[in-house]
Amino acid sequence: MDDHQIVEGFKNPTTKNKAFSVLLDKYQQRIYWHVRKIIIDHDDTDDVVQDVFIKVFKNLDGFREASQLYTWIYRIATNEALTFLKKRQRKQAWSIDDISHDLENKLTSGSYIDGDEIQVKLQKAILTLPEKQKLVFNMKYFDDLKYEEISEIIGTSVGGLKANYHLAVKKIEEYLSED
């Protein structure tokens, strides 16, 4: 099923569950890893991804197909992940630096992190980036999204995204060349 067929199938009561099941099969893993790069912690990521797909389920009837289905889902996932981090920051009265330090600790101690020393160092470098640069870098580098798709997801101009990506790459290169 392509995305249009999924949306149409979802709108039909007899095929709604099947269509949503296809949507989950198609996008759940990609969304998990997208959110995981923002939140780092596996358990928190699972919770956020569940919230994402609950929102998708509740709102898919109203999806107008003005954008691609996966960019719509990525936008929901991005917003849910950022909202989760903001709530944690407010609840625990943490600064952005405290959250970055906590995420770095989870990165190195998490049982769900596979990767050699270089991969962990790259993830630590990404954690040092400002939020927008981190999002743009992850979406471009790991998710291989086009700037136009990222623009739809986070609502920033393509030129601004290119500048953010360039700055992120420079900062990551500087971080990796330290030591």
UniProtKB/TrEMBL annotation:
Recorded superkingdom: Bacteria
Phylogenetic classification of the source organism: Bacteria, Pseudomonadati, Bacteroidota, Cytophagia, Cytophagales
Keywords from the UniProt entry: DNA-binding, Sigma factor, Transcription, Transcription regulation
InterPro entries, alphabetized: RNA_pol_sigma-70-like, RNA_pol_sigma-70_dom, RNA_pol_sigma70_ECF_CS, RNA_pol_sigma70_r2, RNA_pol_sigma70_r4_t2, RNA_pol_sigma_r2, RNA_pol_sigma_r3/r4-like, WH-like_DNA-bd_sf
Domain RNA polymerase sigma factor 70 region 4 type: 121-172
The RNA polymerase sigma-70 region domain, residue ranges: 23-90
Any GO MF annotation of the entry: sigma factor activity
Family: Belongs to the sigma-70 factor family. ECF subfamily.
Signal peptide: none
Keyword Transport among UniProt keywords: no
SUPFAM superfamilies: Sigma2 domain of RNA polymerase sigma factors, Sigma3 and sigma4 domains of RNA polymerase sigma factors
Gene Ontology BP terms: DNA-templated transcription initiation
Name this protein carries in UniProt: RNA polymerase sigma factor
Pfam families for the chain: Sigma70_r2, Sigma70_r4_2
NCBIfam families: sigma70-ECF
